[in-house]
Amino acid sequence: MLEDARxxxxxxxxxxxxxxxxxxxxxxLKIFRDLNDHDVTLASVTEEFDYSTPMGRMFFHMMxxxxxxxxxxxxxxxxKGKKERVRKGLHNGSLSFGYKSAGSREPAExxxxxxxxxxxxxxxxxxxxxxxxxxxxxxxxxxxKTRRGxxxxxxxxxxxxxxxxxxxxxxxxxxxxxxxxxxxxDKDLFNKCLSVCNKRSRR
Length: 203
Known about the structure:
The protein is mainly α.
């Protein structure tokens, strides 16, 4: 966008709100100055600011400060909420393959779904005789899809086999807590798979 502005391809950048334009006040002001230097106007659908007057510039700076504060505060509150969920034994984000929600109420109870295939994949891999690609073929041949509705790949399997959610753990960043959901595998089987993965990584 900035390169097109320098080449004079347009005269106006239209945004919905300033807090959707950038998450950082320094970045907002720098881009705004770059656009202004090339006679390109920044206009908002929902907010009024006029950079041609001292009052307008002050108002614009204030809006940029509040936009950054809002996004930083939203990020902090989101992180706080996710930590609280983990400490209560609840999962964050999309559900892992092998589970489904038992209802629409929050927090919803999790029930097993495709648990036999999930357990089978871990059992096969723990023997050390199957690669990530072969486990992906095993799941694809049985007609299973990933949570995104795609065919299994070796990379998806690698992530799947290192997910300790399956042995009853919920996590957020470095925090790990016992989950309220029913484990599909035990920790011994999970650790066997992790050991096989680590050996192959070193090799």
